[in-house]
Amino acid sequence: MNDKWWQSAVVYQVYPRSFADSDGDGIGDLRGIIQHLDHLKELGVDVVWLSPIYASPHDDNGYDISDYQRIDPLFGTLDAFDELLEGLHERGIKLVMDLVVNHTSDEHPWFVESASSRDNPKRDWYWWRGPRDGAQPGEHGAEPTNWGSFFSGSAWQLDERTGEYYLHLFSRKQPDLNWENPEVRGAVYDMMNWWLDRGVDGFRMDVVNFLSKDVSLPDGVVPPGALWGDAYPFFAQGPRIHEFLHEMHERVFAGRDDRYLTVGEMPGVDIAEARRFTDPARGELDMVFQFEHVDLDHGPGGKWDHRDASVLDLKRNLAQWQEGLAEVGWNSLYWNNHDQPRVVSRFGDDGEHRIPSAKALGTVLHLMRGTPYVYQGEELGMTNVPFSTIDDFRDIETLNHYAEAVDVLGQPADEVLVALRRTSRDNARTPMQWSDEPNAGFTTGEPWITVNPNFPQVNAAAARADADSVFAHYRALIDLRHRSRLVSAGGFELVLPEHEQIFAYVRELDGGALLVLANLTGRPAAYDVAALPGWESAEVVLASGGTGTTGLTGVLGPWEAVVLQR
Ligand code: TEU
Fold first, then answer.
1. Which residues line ligand 1 (CB under 6 A)?
2. Reduced to 3 states, what is the DSSP secondary structure of residue 465?
3. In this model, does residue 545 exceed pLDDT 80?
4. ipTM score assigned to the predicted complex
5. Rg (CA), the chain
6. Which CATH class is domain 490-565?
7. Taking the model in full, what pTM does it have?
8. What is each CA distance from 428 to 197, 345, 418, in whole angstroms?
9. CB of 428 within 8 A of CB of 339?
10. Fewer CB within 10 Å of terminal CB in the chain, N or C?
11. Which part of the chain is the Glycosyl hydrolase family 13 catalytic domain (predicted)?
């Protein structure tokens, strides 16, 4: 594969609600982002992915869109948007928008029309079905299928007026669009072209592997102890998904140059499918977000059911993806986004070893093959949040889960809270910590969600002034990817594969090689230098421990990471 620009690029995700508030209403906005562009420039990222800023009732913080071509007044205006785009482009940074077209808001005019009567011309733009055979609308168990929503409860909502149910894989305010209908697809492609013509550089596509459903809508198997059937086989990688994504490519990107980036968010996708989605010869997507490594600490009961993931689990899984996409396809590399708890609290150590563990995790991620994504605050080693009561949470998934677990399943509230503190998406959504000023410098008003109380220690002003900070280390990692084709294009080989503490791999290209060695535990880790032949006198190009690192010593300190080149 010829080098593509995004192989040596790093993407930074901005979650606008929590990035920076310029007008004191407690909610981040576009001008707030504009005021902090130099932070991104200094970090050295190539692309910003902006989570949704479109008009929305904010049932799911903007992932419920009521107008794809308007900016929500909470965030600003189209003028402010153009200014942001210009400010980024002036700094050589591209802007990728969030594309949320598996569903709209129920307040989108398309849905309002669709719901207005059974014979409305837009009725078929969404998934409408009558009650199950013989059942009355609204009756217990009358839903057309036994599918559950990601946000608890049934995936079907009865519309009293027309006596039919509509499908919503997420909240009831996020009805699923019917991609079988060519008018729906055409309307989406027009909207995408409108944004690209305005100057944006691509799209991150929300749950894009869910667009094609099995139109017979079968019931799912109900797992033991679960309330709902498992519908995943009927909406993920559905029968027409590759056709739809290829059509989108043809209708939106094919006639343009190759400055754009497309990344598909794909919960549950496996290696074989990911290879198909990203095979350049097929003309679908540039890369995917897969979920296997961030699902490793989920038990049989799903995301709220924690199990420990070992270093072996993590590195084996990441290495499988490296090998699986080695010849064909491309992967995204991420630990964090707005849906995941903070990596330093999850796979690292957010206490004594916060800084070295954040650096070690960043190192092993960034130097693999793929395009790394940094989620706002990750470059500071931001941590999970000590939420005290259910009233501290804001996320619909979290709040609905709490209500269902406590009220329907009768689980003890304090146990459910323990799971929320560990896993809730709100851990990623507290305000960006800019400084040690009130509210971490995020807002002069009352923040929409609590600020992590560790902001006096963990903040951008302190990190930018400290040569040994997580920020400085992320800068160095990004710089290394820019400079080294070993990182952007080299092959990948796992070394010390059975080591229970160390994640180590070699990147090789044209006779040169990089060795990445990281201890992903808080205990010293000894290794056999003889198992790494040829690396004894290699040069250290990057180390998490700062200065004084001297190549292969046979032992790594707690969370120590070192990168050698020969
Ligand atoms: O997320 C899709 C998704 O399946 C999950 O990661 C989801 O966030 C949830 O945690 C599952 O347990 C995307 C967006 O990233 C997310 O913010 C939205 O809420 C969701 O789609 C609906 O648009």
1. 60, 63, 100, 150, 170, 206-207, 265, 267, 303, 338-339, 397, 425
2. coil
3. no
4. 0.97
5. 24
6. mainly beta
7. 0.98
8. 32, 11, 16
9. yes
10. N
11. 13-429
